[in-house]
Amino acid sequence: MLVNALLLLLLLGLITPCRADEFEQEPIKYSQSTPDNIVTRLQAEIDAGKVTLRYEDHFGYLRSALEALRVPLSSQMLVFSKTSLQRERIAPRTPRAIYFNDDVYVGFCQSGDVMELSAVDPRLGAVFYTLDQRDPERPRFSRQGDNCLICHASSNTQHVPGHLVRSVYPDSRGFPLLASGTFRIDHTSPIENRWGGWYVTGTHGAQKHLGNMIAEARTRPEDVDNSAGMNLKELGDRFRTTSYLTPHSDIVALMVLEHQVEGHNLLTRASFLTRQALHFEKSLNSELKEDKDKRWDSTTARIRSACEPLVRYLLFSKEARINEPILGTSQFAAEFPALGVRDSRSRSLRDLDLSRRLFKYPCSYLVYSQSFQQLPIEAKDYVIRRFSEILEGSDLSPEFRHLTTEDRTAVREILADTLEGAPAAWRGDTSSR
User: Does 317 share its domain with 381?
Assistant: First the structure.
């Protein structure tokens, strides 16, 4: 009966397993599970002799790996704060380069021992790898665990293995002045709090931010005049840009990254919490000799709690407003939308706005991702049902008042044409086009 009581308390949410290792237990078993993601598939192709990574003296496997992973060079962003694994390699004169697409994030340090990768795994969330940059003969992606999870499985990543974008006040060596505070960044963050410790190229009018700024410990960082760091188009006076694949740290790429990172974390959270709720329910039904398909109200409540934050985020609830047009310096703003699936009127959820908000149509392109498509059916059904309530106008709650009637109609029509599993009812409103 003790086991029964504990299971009931778990199911009702009155007690919870320790967050520190909850995802190491059933049904997730993070470290023991075999990943299946863009990096594991590339390694399999390398092992089979179908793909060969080229090695360069300065960049190692970087350029070739980006090509194989289909990561655009235009996504390059440069961070000079010492806030990652190879911090001794990172400084304002030698920033770390980060590249990304929908499925993977790649980090490169000057003279670094390894290239760092974080793959988006539909079942496991973020899975971390290194690629030895000192071995020009045998490229192998090695999975990493505890060292990465210290920072990448905490409250900053929704308590799941995830990704993190931080804004700090860096000193002249790149050390963050932690006493002055830090910001965890996503698309809800005010522009004025973003990009501390990052280089930023692009124009943004009179809007201020923390990018390109170096502070000193003896001053109040918030009082530093960062006017010289605004609206930069080039970085050549700050470090040797020829040491990188491109001279850019594109402002548009940074903004898309910030949206995508938290979206991936919330997708992982919804998946994990739903699977855990169903696992606890199955165990409870077995212990109590109930029908194996009995659905407890508490399970439904836990699924709702897991998925409602994801619904709000995917529909850009509380998105920070852009007050003046934003323009990048690389080809990212042209290349990123070109990858989008388009409806019969040539509209895509990847179309950028950049004058008042990030995207023209306020629904995340992450609904097309494998992480969304492979959500537990109970979670995916919940999100789709909530989308219907919101986009059809029956839910006008404050979290979604930013969506105009035109926004809701456009998003519903785009999803009806392009999203696998979209309700047939959504297509009814679009048949007259």
Answer: yes
